[in-house]
Structures are given as C-alpha cells and as structure tokens.
Amino acid sequence: MAQIGIRGVRKSYGKTQVVHGVDVDIVDGEFVVILGPSGCGKSTLLRMIAGLEEITAGEISIDGEVVNELEPRERGCAMVFQNYALYPHMTVAQNIGYSLKVAGVPRATRDQRVLETARTIGLVDFLDRKPGQLSGGQRQRVAMGRAMIREPRVFLFDEPLSNLDAKLRVQMRLEIRRLHQRLRATSVFVTHDQVEAMTLADRLIVMNEGHIDQIGTPSEVYGLPASRYVGGFIGSPPMNFLDVTVGGDGGHVVVGDGQHLSIDPAIGAGLVGQTVEVGIRPEHVTVGHRAGGSTLTAAFDFMEDLGAGRLFHGRLGGADFIVHSPEHRPPAFGEEIPLHIPRDAVHLFDPQTGKRVAAQPVVQAAAA
Amino acid sequence: MIERTPILNVATHVIMFSGLLLLLVPVWFAFVASTHTMQAVNAIPPEFLPGDQFFTNIEAAWTRADFATKFVNSMIVAVGVVVGKVAIAAITAFSIVFFNYRLRQLAFWMVFITLMLPLEVRIVPTFAVAANALSPFQVLMNLFGITALVEAVSGVRVELNWNLLNSYTGLILPLVATATGTFLYRQFFLTIPDELVEAAKMDGAGPIRFLRDTLIPLSKTNMAALATIMFVFAWNQYLWPLLVITDTANFGVVVVELGRLIPDMTTTGGGIPEWHTAMAATLIVMVPPLLVVVLMQRWFVRGLINTDK
User: Fold this and answer.
1) Cα–Cα distance between B108 and B192 in angstroms, integer?
2) A211 and chain B: CB distance < 8 Å anywhere?
3) Is A85 on the interface with B (CB under 8 A)?
4) Is A162 an 8 Å CB contact of chain B?
5) Which fold has domain B18-305?
6) What is the distance between the alpha carbons of residues A55 and B91, in angstroms, rounded to a whole number?
7) Who contacts B166 (Cβ-Cβ below 8 Å, separation ≥6)?
8) What is the pLDDT of residues A266-280, one digit of tens each?
9) Which of A8, A148, A267, B34 stands the most exposed, by the fewest C-beta atoms within 10 Å?
10) What is the reported pTM?
11) What is the predicted ipTM?
C-alpha cells in the first residue's frame, strides 16, 4: 500500500517531448485509471512509475521516497503487461513464483505462497502447465498472480485486457475490481477503453497529447468535462459539437441556422457576441416538446437500432448531430424532428483553447 | 489445395531419387572398398558388393593411424570448439542485443565482418599469433616505448611469449573466434519480446539472472543447432591442425591422420595403393559427426513440435 506523488514529470525521446509536465497525487489504496488514445503518453507515464523508462525531468515518489534513480525491483511495484509477458519455458507455478525465487525465498515458503496465490486466481489445477497450454484469460490470470505474489506496494496495469475477446474482457474487468476490493493495493491502470476506465476507476486521469486534461471520478469526468477533448472522448456515442454565437443577454446561443438554444445566463453573460462551441450529449436530448430548456428542430436521415435504444443521425445548424432516444419510429429521409435540450445539458467550450467555459472554474479533483 | 499432377509427381520423385543416388553411391563404394582385401579392391572390374574383410580392415586402420589417441584429441578439440563457440556467441549476442551502449552497432559489425575472413584467409597471421599469442602486445609495448623504459629502469628486457603451437588451446581458440554463432544468437535474441525483458526486471532479475533463467533455456534448440554445426565443422578441420601440430603422436587429430592414410605417391612409393584401409578409416572418422547430427536432429524436431512460444 502506498501513495504515489508525480510532480512535473516530463519525458523526451531526443528532441521529441511525449509527456509535458504531469502533476498528480495518487492516494493510498486508490484505483486510478489513466485514459487516453494511443500515443498520448499514458503508457510512458506508467512505465516511468515502474522504472522501465528514465524520467527526463520532474520527480516520482512512492510513499514519500523519491524513486527516480531506483531500479524497478527496488520500487515495490508489480506490473501486468498487455501481452502477459509470461516466461514461456516455465510452468505456471514457476512463473508465479519466479520473483520469490530471485529474491531467495526458501523453496517451502515459496511453494506455499504460490499455492495460495493460485487459489486466489483460481488456477490451482493448472500449476504444472506451461503458458502455451493456457487460454488467453488463464494467461492473464497467471500474469496477475505473478504480480500479486510479491505483495507489491503498487500494482501497475498496462492495458492488460486489450488482448482478450469482449466477453472475457468484461469478466476479467470484474475480477480485477474484486481483487482490488480485497487487497486494497494502490493500483494504476492504463487503458484506451473508456468503458473499462469508467467501470474500474476510483479516479480517472484523462490524458491527451502528453498533458493531463482532467482528473476526477468517472461521474465528474462525464458530467463536467474539463475540455472539448474530454467531452468527445468520454461517452458513446460521442458528444455533439456545434459552433455557436452567444446571443443578446447571454441567456442563449445562436446555432448556425438561426435557432436559439438557451444556456446558463451566469456563464453566457460575459461572452455576449463571442463565438463558442457547445457540446451536447446524445443521451441528454429527448425527442418532442417539453417544458423548460429549449426546443430545436433538426433534420434526420436514418436510425440505428441498438436494441436498448436507438441512435438518430441527422444535422443541426450545419453540423452532424446524433440523438440517443428510446423513440421507435424511424425518421423519413430529411424529416425535421423537434428536439428538447435541457439547459444543464449544454456544455460550453472555448473554441481556441478547447477548455470548458464556466461561471466558476471547474474544480479539478486533484488532491493537492 | 487439390493438385492432380501425376506427371509432375513422377518427375519430382525421379529427381529426388537420382539426387539421393548421387549422394549415396560414393559412400557405398567407400563401404564396399573397406570390406575387401587389397587385391580385390584394386582388381578391375571393381567389386560392387561387400566382401568379408570389414573387421580386419577396420582393425588395421585403427592401429595403423593410432586412432585411440587421435580420437580423444579430435573429441577434445570438437567439444572445446562447441563449448567455446556457444558460450562466446551467447554472451556477445546478449551484449549486442540487450544493452545500450555507445559503438554497439560498430561492435556488432566488427564481429560480423569476421564472417568474411575465415581461418583459411588469415592463416598466416593467425599462425604467427599462435606461435606467440602475446606478440601483438609486445609490438604495442615496443611501439609506445614501454619495453625500452622497463629495460632502462630494471635492466630486464621484456620478451612476452606464449606459444600455442602443439597444444589443445592452439587447436581450439582460432576456430572459436568467428561470428557465425554470434549472428545466429543475435537473430534469436531479437525475437524475444521487450515485455519479457521488462517482466524479468520487474521480478527483480538482473541481467545475468535473465540470461541464465530465461534466455539460455529459451535458446536450447538454437544451441543444439549451433553445437551440431560447430561439432561437424571442428571435427572436419584439416588445414589448421596440419599447420599448428607438429607433434602428431600426441596432438594429431583424426582427419589429418586420415589424410596420411590416403594413398598417394608418398605413401605407396609406387606400390599398390591400400584403399581398403583408407576407406575403413574414412568410415570410422565419419561416425562421430554422423552420430551428433542424428542425435541432435531429434532435438530440432522436438524443438519444432513443442514450441515454447
């Protein structure tokens, strides 16, 4: 169990900087998920915590001790890799017990602990098999057992589920969550899959091009995205974005085709006449007229049936617009349908910086 | 894929069997020759079927060439070359692939270039070095005036001398120092995924531990392949032992000794060539490499079927 402090951490390969100054504190026993598209520097950050990459600038500490110059084995971290990285020539038992063997733990103790770990991950019957004879999910469990047996201060997961098929992924996700509930070890999990991130995380770190865009609980990140990027990345289907101008008194914005969309006047007041970008989640829009908020019409072309709901694809104010609705009737091609958009479903973003425009700055949930 | 090409099938088989015949006929004649008396072997037309003198000839060849000693020598040289080669190849490739240091690529290419300089090409300088393995250092010391300095101070003239002629070391070392194995190992090590290296690091295994616990067990089939090739290579060496060993009674190897049995003007002195003993000796000399290949082949197959990956 440990807390991790990351201060001003940067990483460059030659002249290319891939991580541009990251500050975050991870609390003892917390499950933190770093989410971002490939190439955003999330794996690099994780590998810097593990000690597999040198830290170009800044400082990483575990339990208050700066670990920048420590070898991976001295940091007390265990890591689960994307393609498991099991030793192909060793049996499951040898794989799990290898770190203890290296550490010089006597045979009897080692066997005892391997057995305990195997019981936890449900692989007691497979201890004599080689990794080549196991299924993907079983290999993944061996990789987790190998990390667990060391009783590490920190668990690091580098996209461990991305090589599994969809069903197994859900199952392993739950197992990881259950494991964390029991062991309560500080965990850092890297993924590009938002569902995985939302379901596992106590706190989410959303990364974009080497920067942290937002840190917060899954509902904070979903409910109050700190930037246009976060809004578009979290949620499926993604947020709709419209370029608009703030109108009259700041209580509404004017969409491309002249329709009015009401917004919080407290935010709009200072922006009258300016161009902003609004983001509206497809699932917050309802079809038909309602009281409160605003009603706009959009032209729809077709519908996708997801079973649990339907996605209506159309255009609003010159931009593509998607509505997630339980409505059954497919639209005629180009049919104009009235949409109700509540005021608090409208997120405003600065078109230049992409940052959220708010009456008060969004409280970043970073524990200082 | 379904293929119905009976004519092509017949043709390929004809080619295959004629190739086989081409390879086996000389061996067959060697065997036949080793089973007849001197008169029968030299008779015209030649015999095509084996006679009854096989064991007599084998015994004659064995004693005449003093194979009892020579076999031990050859075995020491071949095993020495195999062990040295595998060890050096594994370590150099380990260094080149898994460590990041300046001039690493240069080091690799320097090693690689030795492939273009087999022993036969550099035989004269190699012999000079074998005659005194420390002579390069002597030259350097002379060049930088260290010899003169030491002589001026202590009055002793430094003469470094380490003679490798007529020794197992002299037979083995020059054959070990080539790049074949390094290259083979490098190619194999490059296929080891980075994550495996990192997993070992996370598990606390240092480089030597990683080499011992992971790389060497994983490269077993590689090692078997390299060992087989190098054993046959070292066993069949002729030119180098011929040069470096003058004390043939104690340090001679079988292949050189076999060469002495092959009849020519110097051995027969114009008499009747003794092909029957020469061929019997040939058969004896062929056995160890043949055995190694046959035994190791099972390893290859096992390695291929039960792939660890």
Assistant:
1) 18
2) no
3) yes
4) no
5) MetI-like fold (1.10.3720)
6) 30
7) B244, B245, B246, B247, B250, B251
8) 888 888 888 899 999
9) A8
10) 0.78
11) 0.80
